[in-house]
Structure formats: C-alpha cells, structure tokens
Amino acid sequence: KGEDEEPDDERFCQSILPPSYGHKSFNPYPVIEFRIVNNRANCPPGKNEIWDAQVTGIVELSPENNDTSEKRNSLPSEQHSTDQKISCDLKLSPSFHPYFCRTWFLRHILDESSPLLKEDVRRRLKERGPHKGWDGKLNNYKDIRKGLVEFTSIRIMMSGSSALSKGEVYAEKTYTYDDVFIGWKFIGVCFEDEDEPNSSQLFRRRRRSGGSAEETKTRVDLSLLHDICPQKGANYEPMAADDETS
Q: What pTM value is reported for the model?
C-alpha cells in the first residue's frame, strides 16, 4: 500500500436514519455513522480513485460487557467466541463503492439485530416489530447511551484497487467505546471553488455566478476530517469539556 493512496478514517457519531418503512407509526432507528475520506481527493481524475472499494466491520466484545456469552448466542449476526472475547460481524451500509474518490459515509443501524445493543433493548425492539422501528421512549442520548454495550473495539477495514498504482490499497481503523458521540454529526468537507482551496466558505457547496462546469472544481478540505457539530435539536450528548464547565 502507498502512503499517498491510503484513505484516512475518521471518528464516528450517532445520527438518525430516515425511515425505510411506509408505516405511519414507524420511528427511525438510530445509526452509528462512519466517514472515510480519500487522502488523494484533491488530485486530478485518474490519480485519486479507488475502484471496487469494499468495507467490513468487526466488533469485539468482552464476556463481562453487560451481556453474558449465553445471551450473545441469540444474536443473528455471525459471531466467533473464545474465553477472552467475542467477535461479531458489524453490518455496514453501503459496504461497497465502485468508484471512491472523495468521501464515503457508512452506517450501522441500531436495530434488534445489532450486536452493539444490550440484550434487553434488542428484545424490546423485537417485540415491537420492524414496522414500528425504534422505541420513542428511548429516543434521547441518555437512554441510547445506556442501551449500548460497552464494546472493547470496532475495527473498520477497507480495501480496493488504486487508479494510480493499479495495485491493491488498504486502510484500517480501530475505535473504542469512548469514540462514540451521540447526537453529533460530521461537518461537511466538500466545497466548490475555482482557484482558492482555502476559501472561507468551506461549509457549503458553492458555484461562482456565471462559471462553467469546467472552471469550477469540487474539492475536499482535509483539515475538517475530525470536526463534528450537534444535530438539529438540543438532544445531543455533552462533550467532556462541556461537562466540566456546566
């Protein structure tokens, strides 16, 4: 793998997934969101793409983490266990990108099949049925945090073919339980500019009046890789610094 070709992973946060069911009483499930950014996003076409990119996720659980290994056997996800740890596949969507050149968002749905939820929460969701979705009584950052298993680690692995070297490239990132921020979302990193990559208007896409498509280029501000902001509404988890000042 080349240093210049390897994409850079980022921290993740919880956000709300739009409803995928037409039922009137459906309440959207929370999701854990990951963002991958290609380090070569601002390079010319033909030198920055990763073809047929694939991502897999694995969550590692300790038998002492809230649920016993016997309860974990009820999970529909494929799992592998030893005396020291339990490893489960983490479903991510979309897990395939045929032409990855800039940014890529991955989401894991916290539903009744998620290995990241405690047994009692998964059972509660299963009893409600998939047509109703998330339990509205748990739709706040405190109850979502209480419902999460204190996992040991989440490992995200990406592989694909580099357009520059024509060889395989890899990226891997490991997260811990403390990397989860509930109620926060990623700040946008894409902007459009002609010749000013350091433009002050980095938080929204813009196009100069009268400029042609050839004159305007979409760029990625790599300095914003790890920046997040609260989602709409006031129901977001305070940061550690906020706790100290409150």
A: 0.75
